[in-house]
């Protein structure tokens, strides 16, 4: 079976996705800026599931180095999953343009450019799967997280356009919209139980999407209804809600 490259592999969601793919027998390449932190994960996955696993250094913000990074992997993996992201603090992003830029580059520019490069190579080969973990936060700008949300909106739009451009090439592009997820990034935030997935749920959704035919996946289906309602609220009303 073909290898899976997981970008941003230090996150809780990425670790769950790695376990799910390893359990299914897939070889793994775990890529992260601080890849040395993945040593224990690599050892555990090898022993627990008997698959080949390696960790490599990857900086999503080093756009100029993306092509070189893929070159160093050798054979292009069959599946590339981006879990790259950084929520930041909305208040800080409002005050500091550099903080806002970091959020935007971490959630859109970096993930989009590396997936675009990988997808182009897959198209030349005639097969491959690209998976982007985006967010329901990108479906409408909200006062409380519009910097993060704007970057996720751009990433979702990028994946949609890439999917349509590559139709018929043998390359699938899948967008995963988790909603709230119980991770270190959301620790301390008020996350309603009905709307909050576990990392293993996200992992299961990613694998199911690759095996199925749907290209846009809400990890918890209730989010499809929630976001339809939020999108339908008239702007004069919405701006007064300050949500």
How would you sum up this structure, described in words?
The protein is an alpha/beta fold. It has a single domain (4-241), classed as 3-Layer(aba) Sandwich (Rossmann fold), CATH 3.40.50.720. Helices cover 48% and strands 16% of the residues. The longest helix has 29 residues, at 97-125.
- Please list the strands of the largest sheet in the order they lie side by side: 3-2-1-4-5-6-9
CATH topology: Rossmann fold
Helical content (DSSP H or I, runs of 4+): 40-55%
Roughly how many Å is the radius of gyration?
18 Å
CATH class: Alpha Beta
Which stretches of 5+ consecutive residues score pLDDT under 50? Answer: none
Q: Total number of helical segments?
A: 9
- Percentage of residues in DSSP E strands: 15-25%
Average pLDDT metric: 93
- Shape annotation: globular
CATH 4th-level superfamily: NAD(P)-binding Rossmann-like Domain
Largest sheet: 7 strands, parallel
Return the CATH architecture.
3-Layer(aba) Sandwich
- The span between the termini is 45 Å
Structural class: alpha/beta
SSE arrangement, N to C: EHEHEHEHHEHEEEHEHH
Number of strands: 9
* Count of domains: 1
